[in-house]
Design a protein that fits this description.
The chain has 274 residues and is an all-alpha fold. It has one domain (2-273). 75% of the residues lie in helices and 3% in strands. The protein has a two-stranded antiparallel ribbon with strand order 1-2. It starts with a helix and ends with a helix.
Length: 274
Amino acid sequence: MKELIKRTISGFIYASLFLLSLKSQLAFIILIFAFGIICNVEFSRLVNQRSNISYIIFAFLYIYFTYFEYTLISNSFFNESKDILLVFSVFVLIFLIRDLFVKKNLPKFIARNYIASTFYLSSSFVFIALIPMFFENFNSGIILGVFVLAWVNDSFAYAIGKNFGKQKLFESVSPNKTIEGFFGGLFFTCISSYAISYFTDSSLTNSNWLFISIIVSVFGTIGDLIESKYKRQAKVKDSGIILPGHGGLLDRLDSIILASPFIYLFLIFLDYVS
């Protein structure tokens, strides 16, 4: 009971901070920056990275890209640099996904030399901040919908996996995840996408939200597995202790972190074909 109370209180504070930040574009940018710094600290501990260079890289990337979007200043160099960041991020994430299927530790050049902290973590927070600004004006409904989908996926995957799960999804990385839980989370996330498309005032259609829900569920689950592999290598249960009952902030955001570049890539595709 005591653990449940701690989990409820910390979860309420986390959710309240996020929801309050959506009332202001600047408040949202600042909160996501704070989340990014905390997750960088937790990730550096997981990979035993003691230098402060990763924080400097994150601060530079985040301030640079959010400044241009916030001020609505657009130029060819900024747009090209954003595309380059997205390409490198997707490439590194695909590399990390591939290594889930390899029964060995993540390569040192990925785990250490600031590649993962830059293109797996820091750039993902940049795209989390850019998603609600994709259609020029700050649209809190889009990022709220993405977070709600991630929460639905995590909740139903856990509930269905715990009660009905028999076949392990990736036992070597995360023994508690099951195939039944994954498909249960995917199903209810897709169902939730229709409610989100109805209640959120955004530029996205029902079909758009359905595709986003699939991205969130699939890549969110993979993001959870990748973080679990980092924790297994570090021989720790949680990435941190900032959220009592939940663990670290990285534990809470791992699914959004991996999914955000792919969501942003999908938004670019929609804009291109429209």
